[in-house]
Amino acid sequence: MDRQDVGNREAGRIGPITESLRWAVALVTLWALVLAPLAQAARTQLKPGWNMFSTQQDVEVGQQVSKEAEKELRMLNDRRVDNYVNNLGRQLAAKAPGEKYPYQFKVVNDRGINAFALPGGPVYINRGVIEAADNEAQLAGVIAHEISHVALRHGTNQASKASAAQMPLAILGGLLGSNSVGATLAQLGASFAVNSILLKYSRTAETQADIMGTQILYDSGYDARAMAQFFEKIQAQDQGGQPVEFFSNHPNPGNRIQRVGEELDNLGGARRSYNTDSRDFDQIKRTVQSLPAPPSKGQPLQADSGRNDGGRQGSQPEWPSDRFVSVQNALLSINHPDNWQAYGQADAMTIAPRGGMVDDGNGNQALAYGVIVNIYEPLDSYGQQLQGPGYGQGPGQGSRQDSRALLVQATNQLVQELRLSNRNMRVVRSGEDISVNGSNALSTYLSNDSPLGGRETNWLVTVQRPDGLLFLVFTAPDRDFQSYENVFRQMLYSVRINR
User: Fold this and answer.
1) Spatial distance between the Cα atoms of 46 and 213, rounded to a whole number of angstroms
2) For residue 348, how many other CB atoms are within 10 A of its CB?
């Protein structure tokens, strides 16, 4: 056999092998394309809870409260450190889902291990976090956690829930009737403070921020396990008798390290190639450690809690017009007399005649005549959002009996919350079945103090929805309620719930 024959035979073998390799590469590429969407779908899907603020108002709230914060905090004001943290933060924020807020990241001259985020984008990191982190991925984990609080709107979600659960019912109407973010914050007491409702997150919110933070780290190319490692480190320190400031406004939800690991598994496990550390981080950490110790803390500035005195204003408003107009928000559409005005922010809404909101004598606007529309998130005995057969399901799902039982349970919980902030409120008539736009609903009559003096009637109507308990409160002083009741019923009959 000559050399040419050998060459031809070798060439004959190479051809099929090359073709096989091409097919193998094509199959690997095809599987990658198929599996990529599956990995994306496997990640835990998160969305913000109900909110009476718009996303633009989140930004306004954050900007306003950040000014207060920086008057009270001792900022590091080191250009190199601030630039590094801001660049790292924006890189991570680019991977956050949802609204693209104007994120800003600043460093506080405090060696306590803590960080916090304000609605709409401002994020503050204590120098103590940089000093405690072993690598850039751990610092990125803390920042990603705070970005998640912003993206999931946890601050204004807390403020919104407080408006329904903590504000007196009459003041709630005035609150929803105000389009001023400043007035809203003042009435909620949402100034900058450690115990501000904008910063006091639930354990559920903490779990959500851990999950989304893991996703942000993973998508940014960092070792997502670093978040769990940092939490494990400071948790051991806290349990060892050295209290960690982070847990003062970030309640430990329990099993957070395990949950971070589970989410990483959902994402397909740790990447083969990921970022853990960088030369920039090492330099910045050394810079921070070389800076003078923070000044000792003085007495915190106290927010002005003074209120203007004033008498109650207003008399019986103009009688409701016979002509009705429609207004709509994210929850429903409803008709109201055309001489009444609808106010609101996001899902929450107040509809009142001119003169229907009055000064309660303490500088607050209170609803004396009109309607409040809002949504309430009922909780189970473990503090989690109420779940179960028939709750949060669409029409026709779950048994009617289960659905009604949960509607009654959620309504009773709402009434209890309202009574906590309305000491003289009492139930007059409850638990009557009615229908609202084809959905099962409950009708409850309450008696409460009127901001005009004397007593008022509050007609509470509740409807079970997937995202919570939709409720409407029709309000008028006792002496006028019967005259207004026909108008209120026309309004209720006009309701069309967004499916």
Assistant:
1) 11
2) 25
Q: What's the pLDDT tens digit per position in 329-378?
A: 888 999 999 999 998 766 788 999 999 988 777 667 889 999 999 888 88
For the stretch 299-339, pLDDT in tens is 333 333 333 333 344 467 989 999 999 999 888 999 999 99
Closest CA to 251 of 203, 193, 213, 207: 203
Residues 6+ apart with CB under 8 A from 386: 377, 378, 379, 380, 406, 409, 410, 413
Transcribe 7-58 into DSSP letters.
HHHHHHHHHHHHHHHHHHHHHHHHHHHHHHHHHHHHSPP------SS-HHHH
Annotated domain spans of the chain = 55-290, 324-497
| Chain segment 277-302, per-residue pLDDT in tens | 999 999 999 999 998 888 765 433 33
Residues 6+ apart with CB under 8 A from 440: 400, 403, 404, 407, 433, 463, 464
Fold for the domain defined by 324-497 = Protein Transport Mog1p; Chain A (3.40.1000)
Strands 104-108 and 122-126: parallel
Q: How far is CA 64 from CA 38, 60, 353, 439, in A?
A: 42, 6, 31, 41
Residue 219 belongs to what H/E stretch? helix 203-219
Helix (H, G, I), strand (E, B) or coil at 349: strand
Cross-strand partners of 104: 122
Q: What is the pLDDT of residues 53-66, one digit of tens each?
A: 889 889 988 898 88
Q: What is the DSSP letter of 293?
A: P
